[in-house]
Amino acid sequence: MSELKERLLPPRPASAINLRENAGSRPSASGRQPLLGVDVLGLKKRGQGLKSWIRVDTFANTQVIEVDKFSMMRRCDLPARDLRLLDPLFVYPSTILGREKAIVVNLEQIRCIITADEVLLLNSLDNYVLRYVVELQQRLKASAVGEVWNPDSVELSRRRSRSLDNVFQNSSPDYLPFEFRALEVALEAACTFLDSQASELEIEAYPLLDELTSKISTLNLERVRRLKSRLVALTRRVQKVRDEIEQLMDDDGDMAEMYLTEKKKRMEGSLCGDQSNLGYRSNDCFSLSAPVSPVSSPPDTRRLEKSLSIVRSRHDSARSSEDATENIEELEMLLEAYFVVIDSTLNKLTSLKEYIDDTEDFINIQLDNVRNQLIQFELLLTTATFVVAIFGVVAGIFGMNFEIDFFAQPGAFKWVLTITGVCGLLVFLAFVWFYKRRRLMPL
């Protein structure tokens, strides 16, 4: 192993060796001796980019592994932009991507990579991630028990292992490959999470809206504003999940790409057939998912890989559209079931939004009614002010510095007051009749 490592790895520069030796022999600034047997430089280098992943295999076994970004790219044959979708430091919309050897799933809290043999999730303390792992384990164990006790599944596995042609035959309707079981649990977790949030929002919204209609206050308006902001954000997330599922259902090619188990069996079958043509034994077939070093690979292996790529392209071109349509029925039914669920959640949020809009319209009508009443009252006050101004005009006229015989009469003040009041009342009634005729106020 050490000889192979020295042959594959480049030689270490002398500066790094001297630096490590000097670091091991020189005491630290605090007077303590450095830790013996610990490669500090190597540890720092290895610590960069390492992420903790939870691995769940087909036998429901879980394992926590630490893999860096480039190793994960080579392991799952994924580009860097797909792994960036799973980064918890960034917020990306819900996405389901079907690749050559993996399915990249980003649905709310569930961010994972699904292959034909394993599921890789970012290690998180989120309850939804832990529930996903537990639920996936339970379903895998239940399906394993069902396959053991179900004679049809045993007979089905025997038919598959008889010859290479049985690999290309359609499976039974009750059979779901590993990647679809993992995808189903992810879809169920995302739909359940969004539906629970929608239900909580409904429970909080309807009493608040009813209270707002009965009592319009600044506090209730602020609570409704926050509620509507949450509703818009949740509706956007639900709409994105629904659009993603609908886009997959509309594209048969994307659904065909997600059959990872069948593609793996085809590739292994093509490899075994090609090796038999080249004179290899049948038990020398190896999995294509294992990486092969280009340095240590013999020329025969490289020629084998080249011939394998030719066989794979020839086989892919030979697949007809009718077989692809038959193969995607299982996945289409699975996606359709959860499309109905997420569409129901979206309809629930849409109904809530319509109720909020109706409440806002009702409040606006109430405010307009109050505003109209204030305008009518202001109009009456303006008319009354005009009538009172008549008294001011009369008082101003009689308050001038001149003498007339009318001032000498003893009942003159009463007559002036009575006549002025009657005239003011007639003017006020004339204005009210005009408002009523013009329908400016309902009197």
TrEMBL record:
Coiled-coil regions listed in the entry: 224-251
Source superkingdom: Eukaryota
Chain ranges passing through the membrane: 379-400, 412-435
PANTHER family, alphabetized: MAGNESIUM TRANSPORTER MRS2-10, RNA SPLICING PROTEIN MRS2, MITOCHONDRIAL
Family: Belongs to the CorA metal ion transporter (MIT) (TC 1.A.35.5) family.
GO molecular function, one term: magnesium ion transmembrane transporter activity
Protein name, UniProt field: Magnesium transporter
Principal location: membrane
Entry annotated with the keyword Ion transport: yes
Function, as annotated: Magnesium transporter that may mediate the influx of magnesium.
Cellular-component GO terms for this entry: membrane
Localization terms from the record: Membrane
Matching Pfam families: MRS2-like
Bilayer topology: Multi-pass membrane protein
Keywords: Coiled coil, Ion transport, Magnesium, Membrane, Transmembrane, Transmembrane helix, Transport
SUPFAM superfamilies associated with the record: Magnesium transport protein CorA, transmembrane region
